[in-house]
Amino acid sequence: MKAVFVDEFGGAEAMTVRDAEAGKPGSGELLIRHHAIGVNFIDVYHRTGLYPNPLPVTPGSEGAGEVLAVGPGVAGFKPGDRIVYQGAIGAYAQERVLPAARAVILPDGIDYETGAAIMLKGLTAYYLLFLTWPVRAGETILFHAAAGGMGLIACQWANSIGARVIGTAGSPEKVELAKANGCDEVINYSEEDFAERVSEFTGGKGVDVVYDGVGQATFEKSLDCLRPMGLMVSYGNATGPVSVPDLGILARKGSLFVTRPTGAHYFAEREALLTGAKALFAAVESGAIKPHIGQRFKLEEAADAHRALEGRKTVGSTILLP
């Protein structure tokens, strides 16, 4: 089978495709054949070494496929089962061995491509909206990169809860897409000062919570968007890592709270993973979330997918087709 490898950390060109053996599933493992693979910014971090792994490494943390074989000690899965997973690096391959604890049965009403497009991003949206800050009807949130794969899912979901959703996007086309997918107002950050616009939208009060996966470029100005004692949720760093050398800034800007969550902790226990997946699948099947796959690439085009993602040329979710 074919798989993508990173032999040395670097740019998109660091990924090469070559023949490999998936191997046999050991204790607690499944052998799966991918039908679709999700592409996420964390894959870039693994490729560049921002989040280092032993080399060579196969990127990718999300996929959907069928079970080919079941290792010893595995219960609840059998060959032929349709599964999805997130949080297990090694997805950029036609086949792979996967820890069974990371796999979830994919409902019949959700196809493989959708499953691969929503699992990591959808579960991230779940813990952000329901656990990190349990959003309530009537609250106002600011969600950066609202037209991205994460943004479209999260903004639709927040809207279905009854929150007022303010989004940011980087082009007129992305602004319109975000407006059509859960945002009440959308700010084109390439043309407008988003902090000033948030102040206008909220009558100077600020929002209850900011969700920011952009990172360095938006972090400090996002603090100015919060109401006193509001929460800044920094869950990614697409433009570079964030640092807060002077904690006093949080006091000066309104006794603010800041958190840096990760799904590795929220879904460390399988029961938490299953609870989140159940909520996600229900939201998709009810129509509260309508996944948008903006780009499809062949497995051999993984480098092109990364260039598009890093160049902010993508909308919605991006998947690889093996």
TrEMBL record:
Drop me one GO molecular function for this one.
quinone reductase (NADPH) activity
Instruction: List residues of the Enoyl reductase (ER) domain.
Output: 10-320
Q: Name one GO cellular component term.
A: cytosol
Gene3D superfamilies in the cross-refs: Medium-chain alcohol dehydrogenases, catalytic domain, NAD(P)-binding Rossmann-like Domain
Q: Which UniProt keywords apply?
A: NADP, Oxidoreductase
Give the residues annotated as coiled coil. none
Instruction: Tell me which Pfam families the record gives.
Output: ADH_N, ADH_zinc_N
Database matches in CDD domains: QOR2 (cd05286)
What NCBIfam families does the database record attribute to this sequence?
A: PRK10754.1
> This protein is called what?
Quinone oxidoreductase
Q: What organism is the protein native to?
A: Pelagibacterium lentulum
